[in-house]
Design a protein that fits this description.
This protein is an alpha/beta fold. It has one domain: Ribonuclease H-like superfamily/Ribonuclease H (Nucleotidyltransferase, domain 5), CATH 3.30.420.10. It is 42% helix and 16% strand. The chain has a six-stranded mixed β-sheet with strand order 5-4-1-2-3-8, with helices on both faces. Strands 6-7 form a two-stranded antiparallel ribbon. A hairpin with a 2-residue loop joins strand 6 and strand 7. The two termini are 34 Å apart. Bound molecules: zinc ion. Zinc ion binds at residues 242, 250, 252, 254-255.
């Protein structure tokens, strides 16, 4: 099912999600789940922007160009192989810039989990997924208060490495009960799409990667491009959360926003 047919059926706000970082990899301190929410009628515009960018990379076969940020960054595979470091990074930035310059209704969401801060027995992926669904639902609550009653649909990469994300999607209904009211505005089950075919999942991949680089490597150059697009209201950033050990001072935009506006339930 492509984005167009999803839109025709649901007329909804679509939250495309992907992850960055591997839970078992001890060399990485963070796991990030992140993505972008677009109104379904605008999904096609986003796809076309990436098609246009792909055209500049492989004019003979733009459809073959899949934007996967970690592959672009490492420059080990075609068509990124042979690119200069700056050119490759410029591609990642160009993808993020499309989001930054897009429709006002497009919102970025991400949850960055410091793996060491998670208590034994807690599933890191579930923690991030619940957090994201809850933030997306809060966003839909706000839209609802303004008269927009569209529901939300979560769309995930079919080939996600984290199999627990696939399990969570299968158990979505029972999770709704376990998580309280978190899924109230969301359609029954998340959809899976193939990242090779879905340009929107490729945007989500870049958001997750930008946030991962920010927290895992202290590299803010990608994050800064999309930072103004995190869901926010009343001077508080709702679309980004940073899970770290309690009491550790942090000056990242998510933690700082909560310190300034005072502790709230979310
Ligand atoms: Zn922080």
């Amino acid at each position: 099912m492509n984005e167009e047919s999803l839109g025709r059926i649901f007329l909804a706000h679509l939250l495309y999600l992907d992850d960055a970082g591997s839970v078992p990899n001890a060399n990485e301190g963070y796991y990030v789940l992140g993505g972008v929410s677009v109104y379904e009628a605008q999904a096609d515009w986003f796809s076309r922007q990436l098609d246009d960018l792909a055209q500049t990379i492989n004019p003979a076969d733009p459809a073959s160009v899949e934007f996967h940020a970690s592959e672009i960054f490492s420059r080990r595979t075609i068509p990124w192989k042979g690119m200069t470091r700056d050119d490759a990074r410029g591609v990642i930035m160009a993808v993020l810039k499309i989001i930054a310059d897009s429709y006002a209704s497009a919102r970025v969401f991400a949850c960055a989990v410091e793996k060491a801060s998670v208590s034994t027995g807690t599933d890191v992926v579930e923690l991030a997924f619940e957090d994201l669904c809850s933030r997306f639902s809060l966003y839909l609550d706000r839209l609802r208060a303004q008269g927009d009653r569209q529901r939300g649909l979560v769309i995930l990469d079919r080939t996600t490495r984290e199999t627990s994300l696939q399990r969570l999607a299968r158990e979505f209904r029972s999770l709704g009960t376990r998580w309280g009211n978190t899924l109230r505005n969301l359609a029954d089950i998340p959809f899976f799409v193939d990242s090779r075919a879905s340009r929107l999942i490729q945007f989500a991949d870049h958001v997750a990667y930008a946030v991962f680089r920010r927290y895992n490597a202290g590299d803010t150059q990608y994050f800064d491009i999309i930072a103004p697009r995190f869901d926010a209201a009343d001077g508080r950033i709702h679309g980004l959360s940073h899970k770290l050990a309690q009491g550790v001072p942090c000056l990242c935009p998510a933690c700082l926003s909560r310190q300034i506006s005072g502790p709230l339930s979310d």
